[in-house]
Specification:
24 strands; Aldehyde Dehydrogenase, Chain A, domain 1; 488 residues; Aldehyde Dehydrogenase, Chain A, domain 2; 15 helices; 36% helix; seven-stranded mixed β-sheet; 2 domains; alpha/beta
């Protein structure tokens, strides 16, 4: 966020449609004249405002988190998460409307996202009840002794969690819920593009009984909020999800603390010559267009065996026509906007560039403000920006390969390594992809984004440091392991 949050244009909406929200320092509303307006990417109406924080609030939030000495029991943490889950179920529509209004995501995607956040809260509640210790008998080697070593996990003093815009609720839930499950206080810095849903979740957690020192939410100028939080030596961990550029900057400036980086991707779906074509078409379309193509694990490259290229493309174009793009609040809309007009213009430009290099647009490509039609592009050169870098939108670039060696080399040829989807019924192919793709996940006959909220998730290379999230792994990240040993 730049130095001033105050938007230039005044709201043109009815006041009852505008959510007026505040940052919170340990449960206390930030009192500020610096009011940030959040606008709908679809029609640019003001959908909410946020009273922003400043450098003083940043220090107050750190102090508040560290001043408390009372630890929540496992049952107390469970009860808070479970209550929050119930409240979210009751307010599912309210949350979905908020997600859709501020992000431009189709309302059906926003409803789907509330279901994912529900699972995150549920799994975190369940996991909070489980013991996480291990026991090592020490008399197991010639030099052993009659002792046992026990492990236990202790919460970190303070976590800073920084989230992106593309899943305004679920990304935030994936940071906060595992931290609560282990008793680690959090200062949340959500995206300035989608702050309203994040603040609503924070309020819901307070209402569910979360002690206020456990959670603050701050938005404001980067040099007063995000950067000081990242650098502060009192912070034990920075858990960041977002772009490669910001992630690498955080890695360079965080200093001596844990850093979790979940960054961008340009995941392939690889369609082998034996693939069931209908399955391949369905997965490629869902992977490319769901969430307006704005998932870190969206299909960003469709790699098709050259023998089945023509048949695949014909069916894929037909399927793509069913992904109706338009007003996000219309339940019939499948693809809403991308996050803002600037992003849509950028996506348009990478398509244009690829066309200049010899690619052809077979469907879509038209832009209206931040709405960009699902776009099928064929004959995309392997060095096109569109496929070498991350194109965060509903683009479906199709490239061909000649055999499995070529497919693996093409898939591994970019700087990213998040996930992948393979469409094949050939076990030998499946095994080779699992072993040889340089990615965090290989999903056979599924989209790259397939997961459950508690399974390990995260990438390698520029997509991340290989440290996984997902509820269970994230809980480990928010703790340190202490061992103690006793004669036995
Ligand atoms: P972004 O521009 O990197 O922003 C992410 C967050 O970082 C925002 O809260 C942003 O705040 C904050 N930020 C900006 N500059 C910062 C700085 N100097 N220090 C600390 N924080 C700073 O990412 P985005 O555009 O919101 O999100 C899209 C990206 O996220 C895509 O690349 C996508 O692939 C990636 N992503 C990855 C995963 C994964 O799990 N691997 C999941 C989802 C998304 P402001 O909003 O105030 O600028």
């Amino acid at each position: 966020m730049s130095a001033t949050g105050t938007a230039e244009k005044k709201s043109t909406t009815k006041s009852d449609a505008v959510l007026n929200m505040h940052c919170y320092v340990a449960g206390k509303k930030v009192d500020s004249n610096n009011i940030f307006e959040v606008k709908s990417p679809y029609d640019k109406r003001v959908v909410g405002t946020v009273a922003l924080a400043n450098a003083t609030h940043t220090q107050q939030a750190i102090d508040a988190a560290l001043s408390n000495t009372k630890k929540l029991t496992r049952y107390e943490r469970y009860a808070i998460l479970e209550k929050a889950r119930n409240l979210l179920v009751e307010r599912k529509e309210e949350f979905a409307n908020c997600i859709s209004a501020e992000s431009g995501l189709a309302i059906r995607e926003a409803i789907y996202e509330t279901g994912r956040a529900h699972d995150v809260l549920m799994f975190a509640a369940i996991e909070s009840l489980k013991d996480d210790g291990q026991i090592f008998s020490c008399d197991i080697s010639p030099s052993g002794k009659a002792r046992k070593i026990f492990t236990l996990r202790e919460p970190l003093s303070l976590a800073v969690c920084i989230t992106p815009f593309n899943h305004p609720l679920n990304q935030v839930a994936h940071k906060i819920a595992p931290a609560i499950a282990v008793g680690t206080p959090v200062i949340l810095k959500p995206s300035e593009k989608t702050p309203l849903t994040a603040i609503k979740l924070v309020e819901l957690l307070y209402e569910a009984g979360l002690p206020h020192h456990m959670l603050s939410v701050l938005l404001g100028p980067t040099n007063e909020i995000a950067e000081p939080l990242v650098k502060d030596p009192k912070v034990d961990i920075v858990s960041f999800t977002g772009s490669v550029a910001v992630g690498k900057r955080i890695a360079a400036t965080a200093g001596y603390k844990k850093v979790i980086l979940e960054l961008g991707g340009n995941d392939p779906i690889i369609i082998m010559e034996d693939a069931d074509l209908d399955t391949a078409v369905y997965l490629a379309a869902e992977g490319s267009y769901r969430n307006s193509g704005q998932r870190c694990t969206a299909v960003k490259r469709i790699l098709v065996h050259e023998k089945i290229k023509d048949a695949f493309i014909e069916k894929f174009v037909e399927k793509s026509k069913t992904y109706i793009c338009g007003n996000p609040s219309d339940p019939k809309t499948v693809v809403g906007t991308v996050i803002d007009e600037a992003s849509a213009i950028y996506l348009e430009s990478v398509v244009k560039k690829a066309v200049e290099q010899g690619a052809k647009v077979l469907l879509g490509g038209k832009r209206n403000g931040a709405l960009l039609e699902p776009t099928v592009i064929v004959d995309v050169p392997r060095n096109a920006d569109m496929v070498v870098h991350e194109s965060f939108g509903p683009l479906a670039p199709i490239l061909t390969f000649k055999d499995i060696d070529d497919a693996i080399a093409l898939s591994n040829s970019t700087a990213y390594g998040l996930s992948s989807g393979i469409v094949t019924n050939n076990m030998q192919y499946a095994l080779r992809f699992v072993k040889e793709l340089k990615v965090g996940t290989v999903n056979i006959n599924e989209v790259p984004g397939y997961r459950i909220e508690s399974s390990p998730f995260g990438g390698i290379k520029d997509s991340g440091l290989g440290i996984k999230e997902g509820v269970i792994e994230a809980m480990k990240c928010f703790t340190f392991v202490k061992t103690f040993s006793m004669p036995w």
